[in-house]
């Protein structure tokens, strides 16, 4: 079976104050860490591909290494603004980038591909945004209102019941958007 592709962001493992800041429904830091690991591994298998769009952990290096060793999948890290501990364990990641333009086979598209811009931060416009290219981001913990007319959204855990989202789920969300190509012929 072909490995699945997932997207996520903003776990903030080891960050007790994120429970209060983002109104997360956890009674303690330990409960949050364990539940985030459980939900990750419930969806992601050992051979699946995960694009983490930043802010994995605010814990110390040894703590973060322990967390990363418990997470399933081949993880590609798109760096956020809290990556100090994760970057001390680079061999855990399939790649580490500031920004990535991902191309996924998509038979429903005319060219057979779906291009996705992966960046920690939301952008109002991006490479190919006027051609149907998607943009996925984190950082905002669900505080930015979704723009129904833009092919972008927050894949952070605070927006998706603390689970990663699959490519199929992303595609379903994008198909509900009201985006129209700006240079399409008008009737």
From TrEMBL:
One Pfam assignment: Metallophos
Give the source's domain of life in one word.
Bacteria
Q: Which InterPro entries match?
A: Calcineurin-like_PHP (IPR004843), Metallo-depent_PP-like (IPR029052)
Q: Which GO terms describe its molecular function?
A: hydrolase activity
Residues in Calcineurin-like phosphoesterase domain copies? 4-122
**This chain belongs to which protein, by name?**
Metallophosphatase
Organism this protein belongs to: Chryseobacterium hagamense
